[in-house]
Amino acid sequence: MPNITIQLDDADIQRAFSTLRQHFGNTTHVMHEIGEILLASTQARFSTGIGPHGIAWAPLKRESRTPLVKGGTLRDQISTRAGDGWVELHANANYACFHQEGTRGPYEIKPKSKKALKVAGVGVRKRVTHPGIPVRPFMGVSDDDRRQIAAFLQKLVQDI
User: Fold this and answer.
1) What H or E segment, with its residue span, contains residue 129?
2) CB-based contacts of 89: which residues, under 8 Å, 6+ apart?
3) Which uninterrupted H or E stretch holds 14?
């Protein structure tokens, strides 16, 4: 999945983080906790079907379930890494970027190792034109995430 960089330009968060950096020096453990906050909210989006900006994901055309949750693989393969001054959320599923960013219109699917594809409800075909995948962002920082991160940092600062 392509990297998406998000910088929190919240003045309160920046002040708290500056104080923590002065006190702790290395902020890896702080960033790890922020990563856990972001991971929890990202995984919760799979239950609500609402992206980080508060917009509901486009519904599925043929099913009534929430998009992106059929097997739970995409949700369950999101992980975090953290270091001094940074945290990363990573979606390990190779198709994650297609859901996060959508596809640019229809695309053709061809078999990789066989002569034809078996498509449920359609039959056997040498190739299939997929209509495309709408944008369904599951990663990102919501307003609630910002509030939780700010509250977490403020508590750390108060405890110093």
Assistant:
1) strand 128-130
2) 35, 38, 39, 42, 78, 79, 80, 139
3) helix 11-24
Q: Which two tokens stand for residue 120?
A: 């449920």
* Sign of the CA dihedral with 120 first, then 121, 123, and 129 last: negative
Name residue 88's beta-bridge partners: 81
Q: What is the pTM of this model?
A: 0.82
* Cβ partners under 8 Å of residue 53, min gap 6: 137, 140, 142
Identity of residue 74 = L
Q: Which whole-number Å values give the CA distances from 49 to 60, 79, 156, in the listed order?
A: 11, 19, 32
In the chain, the amino acid numbered 78 is I
Q: What is the mean pLDDT of each run of 10 residues along the chain (160 residues)?
A: 62 81 89 95 95 93 82 92 90 90 89 87 88 92 92 87
